[in-house]
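Hey, can you fold this one?
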Amino acid sequence: MIKFLPILLAVVYGVVMYRFSAWRLRAELDARSTELVDPVLKPVIDRMARALDLPRIKVHIYEIDPVNGLAAPDGRIFITRGFYEKFRKGEVSAEEMASVIAHELGHTALGHSRRRMIDFSGQNALRTALAMVLNRVLPGLGPMVAGFVMSLVMARLSQSDEFEADAYASALMTKAGLGTAPQKSLFRKLETLTGARGAAMPAWLLSHPKTDKRIAAIEANEAKWGV
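Sure. Predicted structure:
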């Protein structure tokens, strides 16, 4: 029993971290967000709502500067203030913003948002347990090796989620009559919009797939769907 104690402690730690992280995220979003009300964006969002047979799609503005979108574990969809300001300045079109919302709707519909929160907590638990085990074999190196292994695993899972959410967004945008062109054009802008410098990192360590691979996947789906 004693030899399994580190693993048991890691599992308990993971559960506690999941509950705490979910509570903290919800509190943060409640305190720093308001509903998005924009007369230019409303028509394209309404088109997607009709495509989904929904009365409306509620979107929130998260008051932070980084350019990003977010699907919360409770199902809410957020666009950051930084992203919204890019739209207001004309750097992002209404249709491109709609593609971001469609992508985040995909994360929610496919269960990624809640699973990511669980994965994050589980990752911490597994890293702790793996580090304890490896440290017996590789004294002093266990935590580093465990961290590297978990980074590889989580990056692969995250990239898979992104491809799935992209496909959902493509299908929704197509059904809504908006097409996938805004989705692809936004991808080409993202590194400039976000000021990203991740291009120097190995693609398999990035949480999001490379732009060219995302666009290629969208075009492959279009060919498969006969769009």
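The longest strand covers residues 59-62. Let me know if you want another pass with a different chain boundary.
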